[in-house]
Amino acid sequence: MRQLTRRQALSLGLSAGAAAFLSGCATPGTTTVNTAPTIGAAPPGETVRLTYWAWLKDAQKVADVWNAQNPDIQVDVVWIPGGNDGGYQKMYSALAAGGGPDIAQVEMRTVPEFLLVNGLVDLSRYGADEYAELYDETLWNQVTFQGSVFAIPQDSGPMGFYYQPELLETVGAQAPATWDEWADVARELRAAGGVYLESFPVADASTFTAFATQAGARWLSTEEDGWVINMTDEATLEVARFFDAAIDEDLVDTANAPYSPGWFAAAADGKIAACTSASWGDALIEGISGGEGKWRVAPMQRWSLENSFGSSFLGGSTAAILANSKHPREALEFSVWMTTTQEGIDAMITNSGIGWSPAKDEIGSVREGAGSDFFGGQAYNTEVFEPATRQQNTDWSWWPITQQSFNILSDGFRRKAAGVSLVDSVATAEQQIMTAFRNKGLTIRKADS
Asked: Coiled coil where (predicted)?
């Protein structure tokens, strides 16, 4: 893998000094892996063994499908804890020691953090660009930096509106088409019987971020010499004002985050009528006691802003080739098979319960037109989520301290109970995130107003 050039490092937001340092060093603990020539394919007849670290359940069963057809390239899966639950630390430690797997599951929002330690293979050097047309454009953009591809999209989470029609019908409502309609339904439900339309997780900024993305926000972008931040744009403030009002009017449940034990109990008891969430939420909602046949799925409600979008993504991960891989070509070949072929995607859905397929034209045979008994026989995957993938904010991109930024924003949102508005918390978070960037040697400035 080649190193980041000084120009590329600067484009990721490193200060000039930090960029000079990074462009002249390898991954901590390694020697010349980042400056070595590309690694050739294994000689014919030689068996290559790839190691794949992932927190997906039963991922070895996915690899076994590949292994049966590719005796010269065998994949061994090692289960690790989720990224922020210890998985990423394990990867960083392995990189620093000069080891680690060939392939690792890395969330899309975390890819830039691995770039800052030269931890990922530049897959463009191994032909990744020729596969770009197989993938959803929005997802491909999130793994591409300065024209180089640093991971392969593995799964994602286009969003929709899960709801209980019978509860909405008690106030003569249907699934809302806009967020303004959503607020009207929420008021009517609260007034009629104390039912909440939805929960709003103040302790998890990822949901708010997805809503802002749908509204047209683009919080971070890059210039030649660093990052530009804009978290107080009209799209973000519109979302913050909207949920400030929803919380102030007691239209949302802030005590029980979606999919928490309290949320499941309330949903089963008919006290929560809906959930705006990702495609992978279907499996969780199916865990609601007595819920079979009572739930349906509708397109995500839209913001009224001119530059808003029909849906958003919540979550998503990649198959990243780590810097110390001795077989990046073969690792890329397996990763593309796993994420674009019907065989690979079907195996991922059936065995690992992945979110939405990242492939542009392959959602998996088990999701094509299939109705669900739990959702009243509705073929919601093709009716709702497949179109949602084409209604995304393609300008959104992640940044090197995404998780820290989420923590900062969540800490601010928790202060809503003490009277601090979400609008004020967003503005404060923006300043704190700029400080966090600079503390890491990253260059950042506020966007021109």
From this structure: none
